[in-house]
Fold:
Amino acid sequence: MKRRTKNDSYNYERDDDAYTPPDKGKQSKPKTPFNYTSLFIIAGIFILGIGVGIGFSSTASTNDSNVVSNVQIDAKAPNPEICIQNGASAIALETRFFVTLNPFKVYVAQASTQPGCVLRSANWQILEQRNLITPDQTRECRQRMNTFGYVGALESNPKIDCVYQSDNAKNLFLTTPGSGATAPENEKF
Structure:
């Protein structure tokens, strides 16, 4: 090992014989807790995660066994162009209830679903023009402040019912529990 003299400006460390430059009055930079490379990697993973999520959500709608959006319901409605212009597409749910009195029991048959349409009360003339409802049916339904809903194409003997809009039916997915909010006036048919 070389002996150090007073004028020698080199600093040799004995442990690993590595050269350490002399400290000439410069202060070393403090280390940051993160570096930009790791920040870019984390941002890339985040963006990749969003892309994968969008990919999964867009492929979910191609399956015929589930309904993902109202666009699918609108497309399957009977006479979709008439239904959307004069009312709203719907999912018609039909079921039967059986009640026995001795012993008192309630039985429910499995429900069947099919595409349907609910017309606004101002647009009943579509059904009247095609002679699908009688003036008596129109009067009875109007007296009860109801509207008409139908299942099946208008050209092929649809099943038409006077339907009642329940103000108790709330979309609990969009409201906070216990708020008791009712549908706005513009959503009433």
